[in-house]
Amino acid sequence: MSGFIGDWQALILLVIVGFLPNEVWRMVGLWFGGGVDESSEVLVWVRAVATAILAGVIAQILVRPPGALASVPDALRYGAVVAGFAVFLLARRSIFAGVACGEIVLLAGKWWLG
Prior knowledge:
Blueprint: H1 8-33, H2 41-63, H3 74-90, H4 95-113
């Protein structure tokens, strides 16, 4: 089993220290948020903040791409954002669809360019 992805002790430690504490808070959030109206001002605000954070991350990746993304041509990065935004609008403002499309365009373009 040590040939898998590393030592099994490290995987167990990752689950205990990284996964389980996070899941506790997610379950508490589900429990508390179960009765909240989806159109309430609090959830509208949370959705707006999440969208703003996503936009900030995308802008930072475009302007100063980290790591291997720096080897992707600027035109491909910007084209992926444009395609993702178009799908976002066409899919009735679905953030998931827009992000997924942008990633697919970016990966396919990088694969095609070599």
